[in-house]
C-alpha cells in the first residue's frame, strides 16, 4: 500500500494519521513543533481505542500504531510517499511556503493535497513546477469519524491525479466527492453557510430562539439528512418524484430565496446566541459535550455501516 505522509500533527493531522493507519497504510507524521509530535501518539491511540470500543475497527490499537512513524525531518517523512496530506496554518502565506518545500522534496509522482477548509489550491500552487499534482482534499472535522472528503482541483490539476486521489481516499474508507472546479468555500461550507444564514436570520427577527431552531434540524431535517441528501429527499417527498416536488413547492422556495438578503452577524445577535447557548450548556461542560458528540457520531457511523443503500 502506498505510503502516506501527513504534514502537521495537530487535530486534523492526527485524525488523518488515524484514518490511513487503520486502513493498513504506512504513515509518516511530521511536524515542525517537537511538542506536537510528542503529543500525537497518545492522541491517535486514544482515538483508535474509542473506534475499537465502538466497533468501527476490528484491530487492536497496538496493531495499528506501529504503522505510524513520527518523523521530525520533513525530507525523511516525504521519502517514498504516494500521497502527501498537508495540515499547516490556514493562511495563503503558510500554504505557499509549505507547498514550495513539498514540491521540491516529495517524489515526483506523489500527490500533494491540502486539508484547507477554504483556500483554493490555485492561490498557492500556480508557480510550482509540479502544480499539476496539487489539489485540495478537504475533510469534515473530525475525519476519523466523518468520512466525507471534498476533492477540489486547481485549474491545472491533472485529471489523472484527481482520480488517483479519489481511489486513495476511498481505499482508506473515506467518501470522496469530486468538485469539478474551484469555488469559494467549496461544497460543504456553502451548504452549511446557506443553512446558518437562514438560522441566524430567523433568530434575529424573533421567529424562533436558537434552542428550538436546533431542534428543527436535529429532530426534523437532520434525521433524513443522516442517510439522504437534499435531492433524494425531495424526490421521495412527492408522488411524481423530483419534478413533481419542484412544481408543487418551487414558487414557495423562490419567494423565500428572494427574501433572504445577506446580513452580517451583528454583536447584539451574537450576545443573544451566546446567552442562549450558555443557558443550554455551560462553557465548562463543552469538552464533555464534545466527547458525547463524538460518541454519538461513532454510533451513527456504526449503524450506517450495518445498513445498505440497496432496497
Structure description:
The protein has 311 residues and is an alpha/beta fold. It is 53% helix and 13% strand. It contains 13 helices and eight strands. It has an eight-stranded mixed β-sheet with strand order 3-2-1-4-5-6-7-8, sandwiched between helices. α1 (11-22) packs across α2 (34-53) and α10 (230-236) crosses α11 (242-259). The model has no long low-confidence stretch (mean pLDDT 95).
Task: Give the tags.
single chain; 311 residues; alpha/beta; Rossmann fold; N-(1-d-carboxylethyl)-l-norvaline Dehydrogenase, domain 2; 8-stranded mixed β-sheet; 13 helices; 8 strands
Describe, in short, the structure shown.
The chain is of the alpha/beta class and 311 residues long. It has 13 helices and eight strands. The chain is 53% helix and 13% strand.
What topology emerges from the helices and strands here?
Layout (H helix, E strand, L loop, with lengths): L2 E5 L3 H12 L4 E4 L3 H20 L7 H4 L3 E4 L2 H5 L2 E6 L5 H14 L5 E4 L7 H4 L8 E6 L8 E6 L5 H13 L3 E4 L9 H17 L5 H16 L4 H7 L5 H18 L7 H14 L5 H21 L5
Parallel strand pairs: 1-2, 1-4, 2-3, 4-5, 5-6, 7-8
Antiparallel strand pairs: 6-7
Helix pairs in contact: 1-2, 10-11
Amino acid at each position: 500500500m502506498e505510503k502516506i505522509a501527513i504534514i502537521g500533527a495537530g487535530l486534523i493531522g492526527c485524525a488523518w494519521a488515524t484514518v490511513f493507519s487503520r486502513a493498513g497504510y504506512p504513515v509518516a507524521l511530521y511536524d515542525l513543533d517537537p511538542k506536537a509530535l510528542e503529543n500525537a501518539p497518545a492522541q491517535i491511540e486514544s482515538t483508535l481505542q474509542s473506534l475499537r470500543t465502538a466497533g468501527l475497527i476490528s484491530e487492536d490499537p497496538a496493531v495499528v500504531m506501529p504503522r505510524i512513524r513520527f518523523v521530525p525531518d520533513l525530507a525523511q517523512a516525504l521519502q517514498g510517499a504516494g500521497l502527501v496530506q498537508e495540515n499547516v496554518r490556514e493562511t495563503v502565506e503558510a500554504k505557499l511556503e509549505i507547498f514550495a518545500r513539498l514540491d521540491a522534496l516529495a517524489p515526483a509522482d506523489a500527490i500533494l493535497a491540502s486539508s484547507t477548509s477554504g483556500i483554493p489550491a490555485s492561490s498557492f500552487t500556480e508557480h510550482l513546477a509540479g502544480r499539476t499534482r496539487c489539489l485540495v482534499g478537504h475533510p469534515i472535522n473530525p475525519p476519523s469519524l466523518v468520512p466525507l472528503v471534498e476533492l477540489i482541483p486547481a485549474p491545472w490539476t491533472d485529471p489523472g491525479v484527481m482520480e488517483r486521489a479519489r481511489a486513495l481516499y476511498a481505499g482508506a474508507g473515506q467518501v470522496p466527492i469530486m468538485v469539478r472546479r474551484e469555488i469559494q468555500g467549496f461544497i460543504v461550507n456553502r451548504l452549511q453557510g446557506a443553512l446558518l444564514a437562514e438560522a441566524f436570520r430567523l433568530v434575529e427577527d424573533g421567529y424562533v430562539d436558537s434552542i428550538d431552531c436546533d431542534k428543527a434540524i436535529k429532530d426534523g431535517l437532520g434525521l433524513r439528512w443522516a442517510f439522504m441528501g437534499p435531492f433524494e429527499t425531495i424526490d421521495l417527498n412527492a408522488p411524481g418524484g423530483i419534478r413533481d416536488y419542484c412544481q408543487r413547492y418551487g414558487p414557495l422556495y423562490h419567494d423565500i430565496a428572494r427574501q433572504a438578503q445577506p446580513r452580517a452577524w451583528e454583536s447584539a445577535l451574537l450576545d443573544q446566541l451566546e446567552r442562549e447557548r450558555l443557558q443550554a450548556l455551560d462553557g465548562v461542560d463543552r469538552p464533555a459535550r464534545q466527547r458525547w458528540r463524538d460518541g454519538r457520531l461513532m454510533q451513527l457511523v456504526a449503524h450506517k455501516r450495518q445498513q445498505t443503500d440497496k432496497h
